[in-house]
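Mods, move this if it's the wrong board.
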Amino acid sequence: MMRSMFSAVSGLRINQTKMDVIGNNIANVNTIGFKKSQVTFQDMLNETISGASAAQDERGGTNPVQVGLGTKLGSINVVHTGGSLQPTGRMLDLAIQGDGFFVLGEGEASSYTRVGDFDFDTNDNLVSMGTGLKVQGWLAQDGIINSTSPADMGAIQILPKDKIIAPLKTEAVTVSGNMMKTPTDSYVDKDSLDGYTDGDDEKTQYSYTVPVSFYDEMGVKHQMEVSFSKATVKRDADGKPELNDDKVQTDWEDPGENNWNLSITIDGEQTQIDSADYKQISFQTTDDVGKINTNFQKISVAYTPANLDEMDIEIDLSNLTQFASEESTVTGRKGDIEGKHAGRSMGELVKYAIDGSGILTGVYSNGEAQTLAQVGMAHFTNPSGLIKDGQNLYQESNNSGEANIGTSGTGKRGAVSSGTLEMSNVDLSQEFTDMIVTQRGFQANSRIISASDEMLQELVNLKR
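Not the wrong board. Structure tokens:
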């Protein structure tokens, strides 16, 4: 029999295998996280008719004479280039930009995937929706993650203690901005005072009231009003200004141009400052002109909420100024100058966010955010050596190397993109081109068989 027929048969088989791979690539063109495969061929055996001879003084050498006996499969390699990212709008959909795999677990067994279609199950475990396998990572302790030890990695689960965030009492508030410098001869028409509509212009009050909310240790919100006044109008039981010889009466004397009377009310009730209803503060007229004097930059008030212990609140006035301006810009907020000790109400977990490092943050109904966990990732020295296990999962093999566990963005592990999924890396134009080449190769090998058959037929026909 002719060797060409057997060589052509091997060619038919190998081109059929390549067409199988192309078909699988095209079938998974819309499979998220799918990685295409490519086929390489090798020649099979070679029959040596004559060996090579060395060159001599008067005659050159000759090359070996060999006849090939067909082709065989060289390799089917998985191409781990990145696919395009498809936005989904779901914060728990994750894609990897770069190398690396998500780690999924079932008991002690681990699998690896590029598909980040994650969500929480009924037991609050973060799982792959396609497989139900638990996503592996590190849980936070009091908002802090220790991801230095791969051995500490486990299933990511939202614990009951993380579903609410406890309230904190406010320990400091800050009042800052510029108070309009008020001339000593400023007057306000008595007609502008609530409850009084008769009389001539009289010197009354200039004041700024700054509202600031704060929380007690149970998370109950209270309202503080910090008032800066030149003088306070004295009112009767009906709330109307009291008059004496047709002049508006005041509780406090006008403190002067660079001084103000500071008073504080909490939930509508007067709160004493240093055992007094009010405290005079002053602004500097030399050196740091217009800035509040250092003696008054911080004051403290005590308040006792219902059924709770007394709480002290420090009021920071250090950034309060008095410069000439057309209007006041004084504002107040919870917390000190650095925003610390602001307190908060109780919050319930309402949604999640995941950043580029794979850190899972819980967002609560009170506006607070807290770190809950971090998604783990794996990197392999030879990702093409991984074994495909179906459902977009991979397993370690002897040639992939062991999983190098860590966090995204470190150690050749790519960054995580939240709200997206990775599309397949199948290039249809390349697949169709390979399909044409493979089809022609199959046809050419079938022609070899036909031609060899005709040659054998001619040989048989020599004897009639």
